[in-house]
Amino acid sequence: MSQDGYYIRDSTIGGQAAGKGFFSNRDLTGGEPIAIIQRPLMASLESERLKDTCANCYVWTEGSAIGSRLYVKRGITVQMCAGCKRFRYCSKACQKEAWNRGHKHECKNLKPVADKELPKAVLGCMEILVRRKQGLIDDQTWQLLCHLDSHIDDFKANGNYDGIELMAMGTSQFSATQDTFNKDFVAQMYARILSNSMTLVTPTFEPLGILIDALLCHINHSCHPNTYIVMDGPQMQLRALRDIKKDEELFISYVDPTMPYLRRQSELEQRWFFACKCSKCQQGIASQEDDWARKLASLTTHNRELANEEIKRAQDHSVGEPSDEQRLATLQEKTFNSYEEAQQQSDPAEAIRTIEGAIAFCTESNLWLAHHQPLPALRDELIVNMLAVGNYEGAWFECAKRHRHAMPKLYPQIHHPIRVVQTWRMAMLAQYLASTGTEVAVGADMALIAAMLINTISVTSRMSHGPDNAFTKSVQLKFSEVEGELLGRFGSEDAMNAAIQRQVKLLSEMGK
Ligand SMILES: C[S@@+](CC[C@H](N)C(=O)[O-])C[C@H]1O[C@@H](n2cnc3c(N)ncnc32)[C@H](O)[C@@H]1O
């Protein structure tokens, strides 16, 4: 099977069989599109996003933080389907499209349960079953979908099968498909969705829900991926992260590849049921992500005592003197726990206190550098919460630190989509600070810094997202605005470039 820049065949990763996988059918360059899918087979929104996101084109109408989602049309709203009272659409055209794609066959079944919150995987599974029953999914796509492993035996082994059976019963009933699919088949399909779905995201990677695509869900995982997926509404693009040779396997990362080895392994084992033997995992804790853990020599008396206390607290009885490795693992656990705690805290001020405590601990312990997790994750969370409480200046300095220390290490390719989006958010924050006349640092010209960053993104977003993505187009529009303004302000390109050089230096200093 071959299309675009890939073909599908059996895969072996680190000596173990990994089912089918995607392979490149020619040499590819970083930033090049490999496959474009206009719409995944199924996408299902989170309960919260059902309220403010179009269930057809997936435009998220809320949450546009200080201009970073300029690609969302101003004033856009969603209207509820009068029948099922669950899905909302941003236009009559979107409603009609969803209706014809299959909603007309499930709308009235959903009506009696309008006030029940149904999990996204149940809604997604219902959609798939109803559409297949009505002949709206062709045989080839269906076979490809059913080929994806349901991991039903793994769910039985880990004790989650009962929950799956229960959800499958509800799915059958609400979709009125019992006459077509038996209960074991539905349980398998439900399990297949749980273990093969990807995250539905906005062009700037805000999570919206889950999706299944019969073709793209055949891509295997690596913690050192060579491709990634960007979305633009329902459109998915698989793009090359770096140069790839013909016949190399194409990988995306199912988890955050910047996390340490043991955390990646455990997440992959729990959600996707495999022990990763990718090129990075074969190095174990010898890769950059675990650098900090090799710093046994930096374990000061204070750190040792702190770890001892934590270990004692976790165990009812003393099991002798812990090793330094155990102490390190405990300290790491402690910082990740703070990160997870902050994510759960709904009050941003409280979350900021938790995060600042954890960052101070990481820094004082002298174990972590700015690019070692969970420090960058804590900093990302800090920025979000500072923006939520209106501390734009504080958020700016955190962005500057992230830009200087974390981004180049975590996302070395200039067109890495996360790097591009984070830089864009930073540019929009700089522009906001310029508009309020805030003096962030002596001599800092925030309008010029914003323009410099936008200039960079106007180039890199074309590679990360492709020239036709709505995000890229909004960046280009912004760039043409600031470019004109700047030339007008400085008169000549030479004067502008000299000013830019000064601001580049200042930006780096602000990130110290
Ligand atoms: C989304 S599917 C990918 C397609 C899959 N290979 C297939 O043929 O159905 C995810 C599953 O593929 C397998 N898989 C993906 N990446 C792997 C890897 N690096 N090593 C081993 N198995 C992997 C695991 O069974 C995982 O649950």
From TrEMBL:
<dbReference type="InterPro" id="IPR002893">
    <property type="entry name" value="Znf_MYND"/>
</dbReference>
<keyword id="KW-0863">Zinc-finger</keyword>
<dbReference type="Pfam" id="PF01753">
    <property type="entry name" value="zf-MYND"/>
</dbReference>
<protein>
    <submittedName>
        <fullName>Histone-lysine N-methyltransferase ASHR1</fullName>
    </submittedName>
</protein>
<dbReference type="GO" id="GO:0008270">
    <property type="term" value="F:zinc ion binding"/>
</dbReference>
<dbReference type="Pfam" id="PF00856">
    <property type="entry name" value="SET"/>
</dbReference>
<feature type="domain" description="MYND-type">
    <location>
        <begin position="54"/>
        <end position="107"/>
    </location>
</feature>
<dbReference type="InterPro" id="IPR046341">
    <property type="entry name" value="SET_dom_sf"/>
</dbReference>
<keyword id="KW-0479">Metal-binding</keyword>
<dbReference type="InterPro" id="IPR001214">
    <property type="entry name" value="SET_dom"/>
</dbReference>
<dbReference type="InterPro" id="IPR050869">
    <property type="entry name" value="H3K4_H4K5_MeTrfase"/>
</dbReference>
<keyword id="KW-0862">Zinc</keyword>
<dbReference type="GO" id="GO:0005634">
    <property type="term" value="C:nucleus"/>
</dbReference>
<feature type="domain" description="SET">
    <location>
        <begin position="4"/>
        <end position="255"/>
    </location>
</feature>
